[in-house]
Amino acid sequence: MTADDPDPADTLDTPVLLFDGVCNLCNAIVRFTVRFDESGTFRFAPLQSEIGQELLSRFDLPTDDFDSFVLVEGDDYATRSTAALRVCRRLDGPWPLLYPFVYLPERLRDPVYDFVARHRYRVFGRKAECPVPDPEIRERFAERALDTS
Asked: How far apart are CA 127 and CA 138, in angstroms?
């Protein structure tokens, strides 16, 4: 990449959900989101991926702590329960009904999120490495937006 080349993250024009790529719960949440995102609003990238690391760095977020998923929307981002509720707001089905919980203070919402995040590997397990996405959702991954072939 030269100084004149655009930053790869700048080529993303849709919200990107960054998630822990080795977490079974997180991978299930991606599949859930795809199922209820009929318009294809969201793109996905593991926090551990090149583009995930690039987006984390852009917002001065830790690049080695994968206990939160991050929703990146243009020049804005949200983490933890706020990210989850912002995703719910844009899904099809009953899920937007959860969005009003965003008006509760984070100090009430985030401890629940943190509890699940702390215990997710023990309860749901983890993979040794980020799995290759299923073919039906592969085009929804942010890295695919960077493919030039």
From this structure: 18
Q: Domain limits at 92?
A: 8-140
What one-character DSSP code corresponds to residue 106?
Answer: H
pLDDT computed for residue 66 by the predictor: 78
| Cβ–Cβ under 8 Å, residues 61 and 70 | yes
pLDDT at 55: 93
> How many Cα atoms are found within 13 Å in the side-chain-facing hemisphere of 27?
16
Domain assignment present for 128: yes
The answer to the question of residue 3 being in a domain is: no
Alpha-carbon gap, residue 125 to 16, rounded angstroms:
24
28: three-class secondary structure by DSSP: helix
CA atoms within a 13 Å half-sphere pointing along the CA-CB vector of 87: 28
CATH of the domain at 43: 3.40.30
Query: Tell me: the pLDDT tens digits for 56-100?
Result: 999 999 998 778 889 999 999 999 999 999 999 999 999 999 999
d(CA 57, CA 112) in angstroms, rounded, equals 26
Contacts of 93 (CB under 8 A, 6+ apart): 36
Distance of CA 17 to the CA centre of its chain: 2
Specify the pTM: 0.81
